[in-house]
């Protein structure tokens, strides 16, 4: 394969198209075009410039990750954070341990808390109906010490369940923020680009 | 030197070079790669991030015999950031040096 400017720019563009908005893509491409132009004015060859820049695939990967993390920071959504996390995995296998594992752990934890919240919320009304039935002396056996206490406990359960769900919302927001900061730190330290020398 | 380590200090290097003078991309890249062995292609994404963060702005300027070049310039915020990061780095480097020298003393 010929390692010249046209090929470098072509690969870079094709890897970034669809991820970056038009304007940003053109801006980035213009930087690399200028780099080749000035380099050649200074007497360097295409091949030499290619080698010291690092492969266009690696450079494109890095730009993609930065863009996706920035996007996830600007617009909070599950989709955006998933895209950012997946792109970060491309930077190196160790990110399976340092990014994917904590991310999955976090998701499982949030899911468990959510299920607990929903269970409490649902169990409340069930216990409430049961207590009322008991007050009317309908069921044959009693679970509560007193049906009246059962009514208060059932209200308490639903309130607790709702509180857990509301708390979870803030917890998720907090973790989203932490995750973004962590990803930014991760990409500023970890490089997806092999050093040529 | 460990390449991971180098990438971590790339930001302060870029800010520091720009604190001395405005640079076009190739100039900045050569200035840094002259001293630090790193894939030059990673400096441009970093410049874009610094621009997004508001530390750097760009302007076009005519060049002698060629198309206009894009110059990178530190903003007021960028200067503040450069100061902070430089102080931080100096303290860190001094501590590491002191530790390393202390270790050498002990070995002698």
What are the defining features of this structure?
heterodimer, A: 197 residues, mainly alpha, 79% helix, B: 108 residues, alpha+beta, Arc Repressor Mutant, subunit A, 18% strand, elongated
Can you describe what's shown?
The complex is a heterodimer of chains A (197) and B (108). Helices cover 79% and strands 0% of the residues of chain A. Chain A is mainly α and 197 residues long. Chain A has two domains: 5-89, no CATH class; 95-189. The longest helix of chain A has 43 residues, at 147-189. The two termini of chain A are 21 Å apart. With 108 residues, chain B is an alpha+beta fold. Chain B is built from four helices and three strands; from the N terminus they run H-E-H-H-E-E-H. In chain B, helix 1 packs across helix 4. The relative contact order of chain B is 0.15. Chain A binds chain B through residues 24, 27-28, 30-32, 34-35, 37-39, 41-42, 52-56, 58-59, 62-63, 66, 70, 188-191, 193-197, and chain B through 3-4, 7-8, 11, 24-27, 29, 33, 37-42, 44-45, 47-49, 52, 66-67, 69-70.
Indicate the structural class of chain A. mainly alpha
Largest sheet of chain B: 3 strands, antiparallel
Are there runs of chain B of 5+ residues with pLDDT below 50, and where?
Answer: none
The low-confidence parts of chain A are: 192-197
Largest interface (C-beta under 8 Å):
A-B, 33 and 27 residues
CATH superfamily (homologous) name of chain B: Winged helix-like DNA-binding domain superfamily/Winged helix DNA-binding domain
């Amino acid at each position: 394969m010929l390692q010249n400017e046209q090929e470098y720019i072509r690969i870079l563009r094709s890897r970034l198209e669809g991820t970056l908005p038009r304007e940003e893509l053109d801006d980035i491409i213009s930087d690399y075009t200028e780099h080749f132009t000035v380099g050649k004015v200074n007497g360097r060859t295409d091949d030499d410039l290619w080698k010291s820049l690092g492969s266009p695939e690696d450079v494109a990967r890095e730009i993609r990750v930065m863009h996706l993390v920035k996007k996830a920071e600007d617009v909070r959504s599950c989709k955006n954070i998933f895209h950012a996390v997946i792109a970060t995995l491309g930077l190196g296998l160790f990110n399976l341990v340092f990014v994917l594992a904590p991310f999955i752990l976090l998701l499982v934890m949030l899911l468990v808390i959510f299920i607990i919240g929903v269970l409490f919320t649902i169990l409340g009304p069930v216990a409430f109906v049961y207590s009322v039935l008991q007050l009317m002396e309908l069921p044959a056996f009693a679970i509560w010490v007193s049906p009246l206490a059962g009514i208060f406990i059932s209200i308490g359960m639903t309130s607790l369940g709702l509180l857990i769900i509301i708390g979870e919302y803030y917890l998720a927001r907090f973790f989203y923020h932490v995750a973004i900061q962590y990803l930014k730190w991760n990409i500023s330290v970890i490089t997806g680009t092999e050093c040529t020398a | 030197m460990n390449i991971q380590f180098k990438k971590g200090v790339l930001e302060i290097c870029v800010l520091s070079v720009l604190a001395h003078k405005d640079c076009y991309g190739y100039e900045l890249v050569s200035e840094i790669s002259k001293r630090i062995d790193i894939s030059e292609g990673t400096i441009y994404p970093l410049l874009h991030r610094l621009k997004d963060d508001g530390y750097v702005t760009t302007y076009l300027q005519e060049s002698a015999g060629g198309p206009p070049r894009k110059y990178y310039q530190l903003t007021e915020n960028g200067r503040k950031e450069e100061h902070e990061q430089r102080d931080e780095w100096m303290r860190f480097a001094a501590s590491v040096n002191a530790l390393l020298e202390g270790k050498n003393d002990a070995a002698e």
